[in-house]
């Protein structure tokens, strides 16, 4: 038995009727690590709803706000492979507690940050702390529970991961609107303190320690190489659209390829010399892990991008408040929990087929959503979206609950940290790539369809202006100005700025109030049509990714109950 493996007798493994005290502690410990993981995943998205408040309070530029978002995600992605290996070396519980402590301190500093520059710095520290902690979560789950219980354990993780992506905007909107103690946006960071303190107080006694039984040393050169490769790839992907995809973004992504190759070569060389590689290459000899890594990359490409588009569509297109948008996502979150619950008993019976069923259900939900949105310009309520969100959420829960279990089933306990570090890094990189791709598609659609949307509303605008008594030449000028204004809005790189052309729609100061009233009446309809017309074709990307995931799963081991437990 390797270090950290649960000591269960054959009888206890087969005839458990109720949890033993040790089992109870393990399950409560699971709740603690999932709570901490929820906190850190929440911070990927919670900042987005507080952007206007942060800009006003500390006079942050749009570029600085982008760095506040990107700095956390970049540090998180770049540090997880190293963080996972540190858990193998020094102990996964120890690294988990260290990461939580650092995250709490960084959250406090973010909440107290007096300037945008310091906020960015503290967000990067937050991301590094998350990278030290988060890989330990899956590793602890993998080594602390026997195989027959892992379906339920990973189902709980799947429900948590689904909730975190949806809860970020909702919780952020609630906290910013509540303005507790007059702290405003700072509460989105300070809320982490009580959660972190609870985790720090209970984890030492409830989470089981484990580490590699082999004599493993940290591969510093490998850590530097893989960090550099991830940064070279992820940073331009995150910043590319807002920067206009200049040459340096493509050069950086191209350079990441030979750096990744150099890292792989170094891992081989270090292993041949009897050293400890940062990533155990024997992981990739396992079909479940190597194929599963590609499946995970594809899956997270879809998930990160679909939530981005939905958030922008509801808030920027249909003027939902962050709170309203978050509440609209609640049925999806609840359905994902149901989907996880459905997947847990099915996984031991039909194995990888659960993932494929989840893909098909997600596709059905997306198609239903496309039908719901198509042609909408006047009304789109939460109740209109709920049926498609419920279907999509069930499929999503089934996928997340099952996929990690399938991928990690054959991983040795000694390699758990290394494996989960690679798996989590792949998820973060895939999420960044998915957001970049869907950004190109969705914002490109918005720009390309903007003139068509304004043209459809020109007769209504003319009617409003004629009813107000404006002469025909003045109406022609207003229509031209309005079309230019919305064209510039749809093509703008910085959505926080109003194009100068929008201030010149009316050349006559006397008619300005009439023109403003007419434009304000027509513009929301133009906006809704543009967003609805752009949203539907953007969803074909999601369908293609889920379809690709469905096909790739055929290359995973089936992993039925008998195969997983040696029967």
Q: How would you summarize the topology of this molecule?
A:
Blueprint lengths: L9 H6 L5 H25 L5 H8 L3 H29 L1 H21 L3 H29 L2 H32 L8 H4 L1 H15 L13 H24 L3 H26 L14 H31 L4 H29 L2 H21 L8 H27 L7 H52 L4 H20 L20 H41 L8 H5 L2
Helix pairs in contact: 2-6, 2-7, 2-9, 4-5, 4-6, 4-10, 4-16, 5-6, 5-9, 6-16, 7-13, 7-15, 10-11, 10-16, 12-15, 12-16, 12-18, 13-15, 14-15, 14-18, 16-17, 16-18
Brief summary:
The chain has helices spanning 10-15, 21-45, 51-58, 62-90, 92-112, 116-144, 147-178, 187-190, 192-206, 220-243, 247-272, 287-317, 322-350, 353-373, 382-408, 416-467, 472-491, 512-552, 561-565.
What does the model show?
The protein is an all-alpha fold and 567 residues long. Among the domains are: 20-214, Growth Hormone, Chain: A; 219-277; 446-531, no CATH class. It is 78% helix and 0% strand. It is built from 19 helices and no strands. The chain has helices spanning 10-15, 21-45, 51-58, 62-90, 92-112, 116-144, 147-178, 187-190, 192-206, 220-243, 247-272, 287-317, 322-350, 353-373, 382-408, 416-467, 472-491, 512-552, 561-565. The longest helix is centred in the last third of the chain and has 52 residues, at 416-467. It is globular and about 85 Å long. The model is unreliable at 1-22 and 560-567 (pLDDT under 50).
Round the mean pLDDT to the nearest integer and report it.
81
Provide the CATH topology of the domain at 20-214: Growth Hormone, Chain: A
CA-based shape: globular
The tally of beta strands, per DSSP, is 0
Under CATH at level 1, the class of the domain at 20-214 stands as Mainly Alpha
In the CATH hierarchy, the architecture of the domain at 20-214 is Up-down Bundle
Succession of helices and strands: HHHHHHHHHHHHHHHHHHH
Largest sheet: none
Helix content: over 70%
CATH superfamily of the domain at 20-214: MFS general substrate transporter like domains
Strand content: under 5%
- Termini distance? 20 Å
SS field, number of helical segments: 19
- Based on CA atoms alone, the radius of gyration comes out at 25 Å
Low-confidence stretches: 1-22, 560-567
The secondary structure category is mainly alpha
